[in-house]
Write a structure and sequence with these properties.
Blueprint (H helix, E strand, L loop, with lengths): L1 H10 L14 E5 L2 E4 L4 E4 L2 H4 L8 H11 L12 H14 L4 E6 L2 H16 L3 E5 L8 H4 L16 E5 L14 H16 L7 E4 L15 H11 L3 E5 L26 E4 L10 E6 H4 L14 H16 L2 H20 L5 E7 L2 E6 L9 H13 L2 E2 L1 E3 L6 E4 L7 H18 L1
Parallel strand pairs: 3-13, 5-6, 5-7, 7-8, 8-9
Antiparallel strand pairs: 1-2, 2-3, 4-10, 9-10, 11-12, 12-15, 14-15
Helix pairs in contact: 3-10, 4-10, 7-8, 11-13, 12-13
Length: 427
């Protein structure tokens, strides 16, 4: 393993982040478990950054990919593609967006990049509203709307970005308000901001901020924002790269917790739909999707083999009600973790929905982020056979828990026990 790490450092960028003091090579997986090159078995509570949505080596997906690979892997979007049309039909119907059109990409970054292209072209302005503590990808344009300095390597951007309050409920200037007053204050801030600038193209927002540490506003915030946005024709882009496909348990899409003013104008997705295959995409009303006046294609977006994987994975998700499982098992897991947290002075908050749970750590007796303890818990959990993630805003001090949606009650209890031991070892 040390040899592979040395080779990695020799040929790959220094800024390519790796977890753990001794980085892990994962060689194979099954269900909710993976194995490393040394033969160690781990319960996977991070799923390749929320990407292995149903299960590792899911037979239905493996079969679909194998059969498609035996026919044709790829032809580009210059030719009719039956699997792409079939998956687009299903996603358009599930999106909740009327007269929806779907464009496939290879990643969430590219999906958000496309959404920005559509919004700025449709509205004929390059001003974008984004949320503080947000993350939308690593391309030049998506870095330009990312409100998280730890993932923003440049201030240069093709866009003028204005950042709005509201993505983090328990920190910031409105944290002490109740939910109703919090929403009102954020709306007032938005109105004030819009009074000082030309009308932007769109607001882009994650219903639950992923890299930001699984933070979220009260339900209905983005619905209240949308009423204000609609007064000026400003679009709403829901970044569902991490929240989509039922992961939150209560809803199929994260935007549905804010759906009182209707669905978003544009929705972006990726990660879980491919269960590890490179699928991203954009859903938008036809008038918005069709606003581009030049030709375009996608060489690898919507390629047959990834579409076959997506179709099989989505079918399995729906037929086995994995959204309901995320609600039930996730609810048990979050209550178990809150019971543990109540006994530990370094745990500031356990938050989240379904199987998207964040544990924010602070230095005991303070409200100061504790990134060293977050890293220590990550290491201790790995040592005991559990893989988790981390994230956060001003500092990386939140643990991120996002297992495959097929997680069992027994596996949830096993993971919670390991997490409890890891947290107690740090505090």
């Amino acid at each position: 393993m040390n040899d592979l790490f040395a080779r990695h450092r020799q040929v790959l960028p220094d800024w390519l982040a790796l977890y753990y003091d001794e980085p892990l090579e994962i060689t194979h997986g099954e269900g909710r478990h993976v194995w490393d090159a040394e033969g160690n078995r781990y319960l996977d509570f991070f799923g390749g950054i929320l990407t292995t949505m149903t299960a590792h080596a899911l037979p239905e997906v493996t079969k679909a990919v194998t059969e498609q690979a035996g026919r044709i892997l790829h032809s580009s979007t210059l030719y009719l593609n039956r699997p792409m049309v079939e998956l687009a039909e299903r996603i358009a119907q599930l999106s909740g967006i009327p007269d929806a059109r779907v464009f496939f990409t290879t990643s969430g970054t590219e999906a958000n990049d496309t959404a920005l292209l559509l919004a700025t072209t449709y509205r004929r302005t390059n001003t974008i509203l984004a949320m503080r503590n947000s993350y939308h990808g690593r391309s030049f344009s998506s870095v330009g709307i990312t409100g998280n300095k730890g993932w923003s390597p440049t201030s240069l951007s093709p866009l003028q970005t204005l950042y709005v309050h509201g993505g983090v409920r328990t920190r910031g200037p409105f944290a002490e308000l109740n939910d109703r007053d919090f929403i009102a204050a954020c709306v007032d801030d938005l109105r004030d901001l819009l009074g000082h600038t030309r009308a932007p193209a769109a607001l882009i927002a994650e219903p639950i901020q992923g890299v930001g540490g699984f933070t979220s506003p009260p339900d209905g915030l983005y619905a209240a924002f949308r009423k204000v946005l609609q007064e000026q024709g400003i679009l709403w882009i829901a970044d569902e790269v991490q929240t989509g496909w039922g992961r939150t348990g209560e809803h199929f899409w994260g935007w549905q917790a804010h759906g009182q003013s209707g669905p978003p104008d544009i929705l972006t997705f990726a990660k879980g739909i491919g269960n590890g295959s490179s699928i991203g995409g954009v859903v938008a009303r036809a008038e918005i999707m069709n606003c581009l006046d030049s030709n375009s294609i996608s060489t690898f977006g919507g390629t047959q083999i990834t579409m076959a994987a997506g179709l099989a994975n989505l079918s399995y998700l729906l037929e086995h009600d994995l959204q309901g499982n995320a609600r039930r098992v996730g609810g048990l897991l979050i209550e178990r973790l809150r019971a543990v947290a109540a006994q530990l002075p370094g745990v500031r908050e356990v938050r989240g929905r379904g199987l998207m749970i964040g544990i924010e750590l602070v230095k005991p007796g303070t409200d100061e982020a504790d990134p060293k303890s977050a890293s220590a818990v990550l290491e201790a959990a790995r040592e005991a056979g559990l893989l988790i993630g981390k994230g956060g805003g001003h500092n990386t001090s939140a643990l991120r828990i996002a297992p495959p949606l097929s997680l069992t009650v027994a596996e949830a209890e096993e993971g919670a026990t390991i997490l409890e031991q890891a947290l107690r070892s740090a505090y």
